[in-house]
Amino acid sequence: MKHIFNGLAICIGLSFNILQLSAQVNEIDSEELNSDAVGKKVEVAFRTIDEKDLMGGISVIDVDEMTKKAYTLTSFAFVENLVGGINGNIWGMNDMLVVVDGMVRDANNVLPTEIDQITILKGVSAVALYGSKAAKGVVMITTKRGTVSDPTISVRVNTGVHVPKSFPKYLGASEYMTLYNEAMVNDGKDPMYSQEDIYFTSQRTNIYRYPDLNMYSSEFLKDMYNRSEGIAEITGGNERVQYYTSAGYFREGTLLDVGNAADDNVNRFFARGNIDMKLHENIKVKTDANVTFYNSKAARTSWWSNAASLRPNRVAPLIPLSMLDENDRPSWDAVNASGNIIDGKYFLGGTQQQTTNPIAAAYAAGEATYVSRQFQFNTGFDFNLRSILDGLFFRANYGIDYATIYEQAYENTYAVYAPSWNNYGGVDRISSLAIYGVDRKADTERINYQTYRYTYNFNGQFDYSKTLNDQHNIFAMVVANAWQRTFDGEYHRLSNANLGMQLAYNLSHKYYVDFSAALPYSAKFPKDNRLGFSPTVTLGWRPVNEAFLSNSAFDDLMLTVSGGIISHDMDIAADGNEMGYYLYKQVVQRGGWYSWGDLGGEAATEFQRGENPDLTYIKRKELNVGLRGSLWEKALSFDFNYFVGKMDGNITLPHSKYPNYFTQVGYPTSSILPYLNYNIDDRSGFDFSVYVNKSVGELDMTLGVSGMHSVVEAARRDENIAYDYQTAVGRHVNGLWGLEAIGFFNSQQEIEEAPTQVFGGVIRPGDIRYKDQNGDGIIDDNDQVYLGRWDTPTRLGINFTAKYRNFTFFAMADGFFGGKGFKNGSYYWIYGDSKYSEVVRGRWTEATKDVATYPRLTTETGANNFRNSDFWLYKTDRVNLSQVQLSYQIPETVFQGTFVNGLSVYVSAYNLLTISKEREHLERNVGSTPQTRFYNIGLKGSF
């Protein structure tokens, strides 16, 4: 905590002195300010370079410019659409590193309005200097900073509504009861529900005696809910001090409209300040601070999970007092003693089997507030060492990030009342009540699952840049980089430490060569193997500067080739040891339920792992080629990248490489197998982005298309398989495996003549029939085959901008192709006493066996039917219309003579449309808050 208080003290002190520092100098040295203004600047690893000199698989997004025409909700909203290579990962590799202003941070703690630029580092040479934890790509977020200008205030206000896309479709109570009876008969049992109960339930004349609960009805849900926010930014400065500050608040409501849940909300307050100071002609200092207060208040009801599981006939949650027999004094006394009379006319219903329910909980179980607090502080120093050597700098940066999460809750208990019904003269009345549970209001607030996370960052570097004879451009850098993250309850910290070196040269911005390397250090390995080596080389050529292209249509053209090896420890982990420490050491422990007499009653000794003193880094080995350029005065611009390589040395317990007696099968288990660097994955793919600009009169248009295709296949695996079709080698690493379905069993004779399916339960007509892949007469796990990949190999993004006078139109769509998935959630795999969704209407019966789309209904486990197979497989191909916005910039002449510098209004919509054969499935959330379309109106003004 002392670091936080120190950081706050520094920020407060700087804030009080900023005006004094600003006033010290009135004249601006324009030559010094523009000395490096060669072109648009881009942040890359530990330096800033001219955009035209980018090499080695790097993409850049000007977020500040984008937000002028497209208000967005999240910091990564544009990342996957505007440039190629991103698909929730970078070049098919998960676990990308996020760096905010040079510090390892969370992307969700930075709002788009605060961001100036995002740089995506994809190739090996681009990520090398960040060390081991950057091996799978880096997203660099650069927040806005002050400028040499008069103070400017910018205010943005947004308000909009979330409208649900769709809800799951579950059967009503009478249909559920009818089909559940059918399932009972299918299993050779007697029906559970009487025809009388089903009839009266279908009539809905008394939904309290014969419940028919629909948790997705308008009785409990709103048609829409609001999200509003306001953000203010202040920026300005002179040559001595530049500052940028922002502060804002947003609040979002809830779709629920029942009990205390109707007041559920999320709110976030944040403030950020970035200050740059020139203390001396050779000394610059920057100080940044950010604080976020996030609260999410909700009634203590698990609404959405219950909506997906609570059967419609299970309970009537609210029962009118008017249905109590007026002569039943004990029941009236019990209800009146309750503190949970709803709206003066309902009491909480229940049963002996259902002593709680989400509706009752929304009224009576109390409330909880999820609380998140985050403080971030950075400081950095730049020392110009030209007194020692012209062009030499020393730079150092330090940052801390403290986050804590906890829950504040009032945890009430409540009683429910199970009615006994009678009918007097044709009128239903409650003759008595059984009470389950106790009404108790919590008198103290509980603090639950308090956790914290502390991260610190440090980097220091010497860098040297020099231009000789206006054509030889030299850059050299040595950098030390470290960051460490501490989690409460975790003994080991997540750490990254490395030394880096970069040597770069270009001749007249025409011929380029770059050598970047790192020496990562990791405590995950034996002492002799803890220091790694990550060398990379990049060559670049700008042929547009050659004589043979001097009069061509090309404005710019850059060809780069990069290659190298990144040593990393990111995937050094195992079940039960996700941090990955000590996996090189053997594990010996007590185990077993029996003991040895000569050990004085001690239990047996188990070996859980052998020792490997040679365990070392995993190697990302890669070659990538890039081509970037523009034509016809930037009417067409493009960026292409191709990559090929491998991940060499992923760890595994190599059962197939050691005799089987190295592992004890049975109880107690024991093994002396060590973890080895053995598995290899082959990686290849390409990404691209193309932009076309066209003007027709006063209409300016831009069309952008970007995309990526990636393949990651297993090249070597430790396998012990009986059949070739079971090998993972040559298959995608994100593979889906399962059985091949060949229809339903339509008769007992077919079952008897077919291979035996051994997955449990009695096989009956209407069960799924599988192919015997190996011809052994048995259907078991040995008959599983490769069915596809669950991720998306091909990702496309399209964005379009049209500007006419003061109107700007922007639209963005995203495409995903080539992936597959299993419909294996509770909405589809229905067995036992599960809730029935609409899919069961296509069930197999004797009458529907020729057109059935779903197996027979069962009240048992359904182990044969509900397992991964191509019966449940679907394609995830889709196109999403992600965002549409229309903006209007009010003419400046309107505000002449006022304090208003500019004002714009806009309307926008998000997640409008999904085009897919599986649209209903893709837009349906089961067990969680529904997906929504968001419609927004906004106003932005500058003063």
Automatic annotation (TrEMBL):
<dbReference type="InterPro" id="IPR012910">
    <property type="entry name" value="Plug_dom"/>
</dbReference>
<dbReference type="Pfam" id="PF07715">
    <property type="entry name" value="Plug"/>
</dbReference>
<dbReference type="InterPro" id="IPR037066">
    <property type="entry name" value="Plug_dom_sf"/>
</dbReference>
<dbReference type="InterPro" id="IPR023997">
    <property type="entry name" value="TonB-dep_OMP_SusC/RagA_CS"/>
</dbReference>
<protein>
    <submittedName>
        <fullName>SusC/RagA family TonB-linked outer membrane protein</fullName>
    </submittedName>
</protein>
<dbReference type="InterPro" id="IPR023996">
    <property type="entry name" value="TonB-dep_OMP_SusC/RagA"/>
</dbReference>
<feature type="domain" description="TonB-dependent receptor plug">
    <location>
        <begin position="87"/>
        <end position="138"/>
    </location>
</feature>
